[in-house]
Amino acid sequence: MCGMGDGEFAGDESDLDAVLWVPGVDYVSGWREAREAASELGDALRLVGVDTSGVRLRASAGTDGAGVVRLELSAATAREIAMLARVTAARLGRAS
């Protein structure tokens, strides 16, 4: 899994929002929050048995400084996570 702080950065990606800096906005706090959330999500996915070798979680901050976690995964892994979410929703009585 790739993410902030693990030394693996894709230099060929272009994220125009990432280069917009507004004076006075605390981007570091948002990024830290997103980094913690990405770590929690990765841990939770592993806990329920999702193969995270092809999952990419990337922490960043939005233009307003709020933390943002970007999730990139294969279609098969997305379907697996969707199934786990539906099963959990049914167990919690939230299935519609």
Overall 3D form = elongated
| Rg for CA atoms | 16 Å
What is the residue-averaged pLDDT?
A: 84
Total of domains: 1
H/I helix tally:
2
Helix content: 25-40%
Structural class: alpha+beta
Question: How many β-strand stretches?
Answer: 2
* Percentage of residues in DSSP E strands: 5-15%
Lateral arrangement of strands in the main beta sheet: 1-2
Order of helices and strands: HEEH
- Poorly predicted tracts of residues: 1-12
Biggest sheet record: 2 strands, antiparallel
Distance between the termini: 33 Å
What would your notes on this structure say?
- The chain is of the alpha+beta class.
- It has one domain (16-91).
- It contains two helices and two strands, in the order αββα.
- The protein has helices at 27-47, 75-91, and strands at 56-61, 67-72.
- The chain starts with 26 loop residues before the first helix and ends in a 5-residue tail after the last helix.
- Mean pLDDT is 84; it is low at 1-12.
Map the helices and strands.
Elements: H1 27-47, E1 56-61, E2 67-72, H2 75-91
Which key phrases capture this entry?
alpha+beta, two-stranded antiparallel sheet, elongated, Nucleotidyltransferase domain-containing protein, 2 strands, about 100 residues, about 40% helix
How is this structure best summarized?
The protein is of the alpha+beta class and 96 residues long. Helix content is 40%, strand content 12%. It has one domain.
